[in-house]
Design a protein that fits this description.
Layout: H1 4-18, E1 25-29, H2 30-40, E2 45-48, H3 55-67, H4 70-75, E3 77-80, H5 84-96, E4 101-106, H6 107-112, H7 114-123, E5 129-135, H8 152-155, E6 159-160, H9 165-182, E7 186-191, H10 192-195, E8 198-202, H11 206-210, H12 230-250
Parallel strand pairs: 2-3, 2-4, 4-5, 5-7, 6-7
Antiparallel strand pairs: 1-8
């Protein structure tokens, strides 16, 4: 099996030989495409706990911030947190303040953040919030072989899966917009193999991306909106389902934001089978 650096070098060489970098586009991995979209979307906080494959996106964001202008370095904060729950709770605070945030986690880290996530779905978010989920089929760098798609119906949040770096870039961009519109955090799932794929991604100038800071201001419209407790939990659950219905109804229009991408919610009934690397059986 090729090492990760060798695979990336070969993939990049093949991509350049067959297509070359077109005008206003750049050859990127899926992780690099996600990082570029995060910077362009005006995200104020990227929070994570180290874990493959999602850490590569965070590292790429760090590269953008270090190489960017002073305004970008002031605007975008990257935190390596004690664990994934702390990362999610930091992002929730950022969202309540009206700022956009990204939480990057791997499959087992998603399990760690379930407790606050199962109330976040009720309260919803204010500033756009995206959870970048990196699954590891075959457990190449994880303690279990977990398909986290099965948790999407349980947490009652939309989950998207890009098939290429260009789709990843488009989905991250659209996710922040729709997250704020529907007050709903959005999960974007990638796998270890997909995160290393190479493709052409449309880019904008550095100055345009750095000036795209986003802030809705502090959420003051409903003081108890972010305080779920027994007296309002049932009502919040009803509002959650209303937001999901509105999200389903509005999602097809997202295709107008990017070429011909069609976004779908992931439910257990729509999961595509995959084969186990050792037994060969469908899982």
């Amino acid at each position: 099996m090729l090492s990760r650096p060798a695979a990336r070098i070969i993939s990049a060489a093949l991509a350049r030989s067959f297509s070359g970098d077109a005008p206003n586009s750049k050859t990127l991995t899926m992780d690099q495409a996600a990082a570029l979209a995060v910077v362009q979307a005006g995200v104020s906080l990227v929070a994570s706990f180290p874990g493959s494959p999602s850490s590569d996106t965070v590292s790429a964001v760090v590269g953008h911030v270090k190489a960017g202008s002073p305004s970008l370095r002031r605007r975008c904060r990257v935190d390596w947190c004690a664990n994934e729950r702390v990362a999610l709770e930091s992002a929730i605070g950022c969202s309540i303040a009206g700022r956009r945030s990204l939480v990057a986690t791997k499959s087992v880290g998603f399990n760690v953040m379930l407790d606050p996530l199962l109330t976040l779905n009720l309260t919803g978010c204010h500033g756009g919030m995206v959870i970048l989920l990196g699954d590891d089929p075959g457990a190449y760098g994880s303690q279990n072989d977990q398909d986290t798609r099965l948790l999407a119906p349980a947490v009652k949040l939309p989950m998207w899966e890009p098939a290429s770096p260009a789709e990843m870039h488009s989905m991250v961009t659209a996710a922040f917009e729709l997250s704020e519109k529907h007050r709903t955090p959005i999960i974007i799932r990638e796998t270890r193999a997909a995160s290393q794929s190479i493709g052409l991604v449309p880019v904008v100038s550095a100055s345009a991306s750095e000036d795209a800071a986003s802030s809705l201001g502090l959420a003051l419209d409903a003081p108890l909106r972010f305080c779920p407790y027994p007296a309002n939990a049932v009502e919040m659950s009803s509002l959650l389902h209303a937001r999901l219905d509105a999200f389903r109804a509005g999602t097809p229009s997202v295709s107008s934001l990017s070429a011909s991408i069609c976004f779908q919610l992931t439910f257990a009934s729509t999961l595509s089978p995959c084969r186990h690397k050792v037994t060969g059986r469908q899982v």
